[in-house]
Specification:
Function: Involved in the biosynthesis of the chorismate, which leads to the biosynthesis of aromatic amino acids. Catalyzes the reversible NADPH linked reduction of 3-dehydroshikimate (DHSA) to yield shikimate (SA).
Radius of gyration: 19 Å
CATH architecture of the largest domain: 3-Layer(aba) Sandwich
Number of strands: 12
Number of helices: 10
Domain SDH C-terminal: 243-263
CATH class of the largest domain: Alpha Beta
Strand order of the largest sheet: 2-1-3-5-6-4
Largest sheet: 6 strands, mixed
Catalytic activity: shikimate + NADP(+) = 3-dehydroshikimate + NADPH + H(+)
Helix content: 25-40%
Subunit structure: Homodimer.
Structural class: alpha/beta
Number of domains: 2
Strand content: 15-25%
Pathway: Metabolic intermediate biosynthesis; chorismate biosynthesis; chorismate from D-erythrose 4-phosphate and phosphoenolpyruvate: step 4/7
Length: 279
């Protein structure tokens, strides 16, 4: 019969998750299905109960339900609870447990591309203070990055991430203009907002004019694959890290939680890139 997996969110019709998880199943030899469950906010509790009764093996959660779904689970992983959002749920013999794989998936994708930038003495800057920023900040702090800046349009929202820091983490809260003027202090810059996403191709959250060469500039937006921010980063001699790799590696981590298997990624990054390019 195989694994019964899926995604709840609204809207979900353009999700790449079925493509990704089908590739994982082929890769590992696991049998199963992955379905999309469009779920409006007022239908969330009903949907979760339906999936539980149907014996679903696990499901992903996307906007707008990552926070609200926590109220309908039997247990929430410690990190997901601290982050305040769940994107992966496993059904363990009738008990639903929630996890957040965004930060860990981001870290995996970065380590695969640029492992040198994850040394403790490196300094990271996160642009934005939303849900993705919370997951990535928590993952970087847990990994041992000792100095992290968080820049946001409103500093008070960025300060809300400070409850996630570890004892060894020094965190600086900045405005976007302050971040722009101090970019040469950072080895890693992570753009976590939706700025630059299709169809707003010509927008970027800050200018990178002061970025130093060899800095890694990472953008979690993956439509388009190369955002305006990443184009400027490349022009200035920085190294670039595209968002579709985070999408793939956070899905890999979710698949591991559900199945206990580890899909190999050798050709999947390229396959996903070709899919996004419409090839």
């Amino acid at each position: 019969m195989g694994y019964k997996l899926g995604l709840i969110g609204y809207p979900v019709q353009h999700s790449l998750s079925p493509f990704i998880h089908q590739k994982f199943m082929e890769n590992t030899g696991i049998q199963g299905s992955y379905q999309l469950f469009a779920t409006e906010p007022n239908q969330l509790e009903k949907r979760v109960n339906e999936l539980k009764r149907a014996g679903i093996s696990g499901f992903n959660v996307t906007v707008p339900h990552k926070q609200a779904v926590m109220s309908y689970l039997d247990e929430v992983d410690t990190d997901a609870y601290r982050i305040g959002a769940v994107n992966t749920v496993v059904n363990d013999k009738g008990r639903l447990k929630g996890y957040n794989t965004d930060g860990s998936g981001y870290l995996r994708s970065l380590a695969e591309a640029y492992p040198d930038v994850l040394r403790q003495e490196k300094k990271a800057l996160i642009l934005g203070a939303g849900g993705a920023a919370r997951g990535i900040y928590r993952a970087l702090a847990k990994h041992g990055i000792q100095r992290i800046g968080i820049a946001n349009r409103t500093k008070s929202k960025a300060e809300g991430l400070l409850d996630l820091q570890d004892l060894h983490t020094e965190t600086e809260i900045l405005s976007y203009s302050e971040a722009e003027s101090s970019l040469d202090n950072y080895d890693l810059i992570v753009q976590t907002t939706s700025v630059g996403m299709s169809p707003e191709y010509d927008e970027q959250v800050i200018s990178l004019n002061k970025v130093k060469p060899h800095t890694v500039v990472s953008d979690i937006v993956y439509k388009p694959l190369t955002t305006k921010l990443l184009r400027q980063a490349g022009d200035l001699g920085a190294r670039t890290h595209q968002g579709h790799t985070m999408l793939l590696y956070q899905a890999q981590y979710a698949f591991e939680i559900w199945t206990g298997t580890h899909p190999q990624m050798e050709s999947l990054v390229e396959q996903l890139e070709q899919r996004l390019r419409g090839k």
